[in-house]
Design a protein that fits this description.
It is built from 3 helices and 5 strands. It has helices spanning 18-35, 62-76, 96-108, and strands spanning 5-13, 39-46, 52-59, 83-91, 113-117. It has a 5-stranded mixed sheet with strand order 2-3-1-4-5, with helices on one face. The mean pLDDT is 94.
Length: 129
């Protein structure tokens, strides 16, 4: 699978903050789409009752996730009062520096944990664009 990276974070939505969070995340997704053309996919999802948010993105390589943290990182700060981050899960092989950045993000957004899962077997199909 090479350097392919999948990223999933899961957060509790703070009471009364769902609509504000949905607006903020729509803005963030639009920003990412406009400013980070290397990302394969970036999706914000909510549980049926709106109490949990998950953000899932796919990257062709580690450099793409590193760039995402640099470019979108400042946009995470306004989201902090709206959520309590539970976990960040990374599937692939991030650099140590990237893991440090992800741990800092987890602390900023709610002291969640960072879990790294190295891919043992499998494949990814996508076209280069």
């Amino acid at each position: 699978m090479g350097d392919f990276i999948a990223y999933l974070d899961t957060s509790d939505v703070r009471p009364g903050k769902l609509e504000e969070l949905k607006a903020a995340m729509a803005e963030l997704a639009a920003f990412v789409e406009q400013n980070e053309p290397q990302i394969i996919s970036y999706c914000v999802c909510f549980s049926e009752d709106g109490s949990v948010m998950s953000v899932l993105h796919f990257h062709r390589d580690v450099a793409s996730l590193e760039l995402h943290m640099k470019v979108a990182g400042p946009k995470f700060v306004p989201v902090a009062p709206l959520i309590k981050l539970r976990t960040i899960e990374v599937f692939g092989r991030p650099t140590e520096d990237l893991v440090v950045q992800l741990r800092a993000k987890a602390q900023l957004l709610g002291s969640g944990t960072v879990i790294v899962r190295d891919v043992h077997a499998g494949f990814a199909r996508f076209t280069r664009g």
